[in-house]
Amino acid sequence: MNSEEDALKRLKNVELFVLDIDGTFYVSKHLVEGAQKFSNLLKSQGKKLVFLTNNSNKSNQEYIEEFESIGYPISEKEIYTAGIATAEYLKKQFGPKKIYLVGTPSIIQEYKRYGHEIVEDSPEMVVVTFDKTLTYDKLAKASIFINKGALFIATNPDLNCPTIDGPIPDTGAIASAVSQACNKKPDLVFGKPDPRILEMVINDYGLTPEKTCMVGDRLYTDILIGIHAKTLTALVLTGEAKLSDLDNTPIKPDIIAKNLGELADLII
To answer: pTM for this one?
Structure first.
């Protein structure tokens, strides 16, 4: 059996599908072709579908409302974001901490919900997220605190976030500014492609990497995290990646599909 045949055989036995959102399930709040077909098939077969995004400027509730607005209601247990998963991971690894958070008001509330104390002075950690309320004062404070010994955490490595008007600075770009200022790289960069966030999802559902498939439109985040976590990987061509990109990268997905509808056809 060749690798392609083996991947298709594994696909039929997958019990948990972990999907990126933007470019994979919807684009600019419009479901991609085949998204509903894919979801319906998984439900009919008793398989699980959850969403995993590197976005760290929205709360879970904001995502629930966003999905509701496009006519696809989800529950809180079906959405994982890098920003909130970082809060959970830090709580599990270190306990509640005093954190200086470079983030939006809704993300600050999420970190408080996990028991962390959000402070403006003498933090034990500085956590940088995708902060659309960013100010120079926030960058300066983060740099000063890190220089004084606070742990430096970035919720995800994305340099930019795609929008209809073009790319805008994401967590990676903000963290890079802080890093340059205090001459220190982050102690931890969470989110895709770091496998810890995907391992959290798999563990929460009581499954194994062998029964999991990571689906996304970006090779260096979605596919690479699946490779790191040893899951099956499926690339869809409805977002960033193009077939020609595969010619110049060592990151190779197990399965390639035009869209989620085509991926559904491979599962049947």
So the answer is: 0.91
